[in-house]
Design a protein that fits this description.
The protein is an all-alpha fold. The protein contains twelve helices and no strands.
Length: about 250
Amino acid sequence: MDVERSLDLLWRDRTEARQATRGRKPKLTLDQVIATAVALADAEGEATVSMSRIAKELDVGTMTLYTYVPGKTELLDLMVDSVLAARDLPGPGETRPDGWREQVRLYAERTLAVFRKHPWLRSTSMVRPVLGPGLLAGQEYLIAAVSDIGLPPRKAAAAANSIEVYVQANAAMSAETAQVERETGQSTDAWWGQRSVFWEKYFDVDRHPAMTRMWESGGYEADACEASDEAFSFGLERMLDGIEALVTPRV
């Protein structure tokens, strides 16, 4: 992978405009190539994305694409950053929700939505992230949300990182659910319904008393989607409670 070339493409809006050259006008733009690749991954999965397939979709020769992007690795970086940028989080000086907790909730909601819309995003590494404007806009927004609530700088950075990891982990799980349902044509509730015999024939209430009590008291009454959303919101709110407790004077 050509790291410098990849970064140059990711931050193409900041590079100096290339001098106009004589000759034929390019048939495509890089944004068209990225949008086509994203649409293909959304419809059929990341594995279907190849330079030849994208060229076919755009009705150009495969070698033509290499004048826009060096290869699939760099293209995937551009795809990831493009969909992250679509969160459209308020930037510096732009209107934000009132209160840091509402700001974090907005980050969580839009991140979850983008993973659900683009399930293939779950397979990308956030350990070695794509250092593009879409990713950094999210991090800037999140750090700004927690940097002025009274935490020391290192704790504020840790809080932002903890929120980011929690949200992305849950968003990736949600994306996996969407992807599996799409690939199999079967909902998660239907999958569990097919296995109802497990609870009747194999589940041992004596070995799982806590689970049994939870079931009998109605703790598992929600459907899969509702339970997932409840767990996500519950965990996020408790995390925010914990952060807030660090800066709220004890009475």
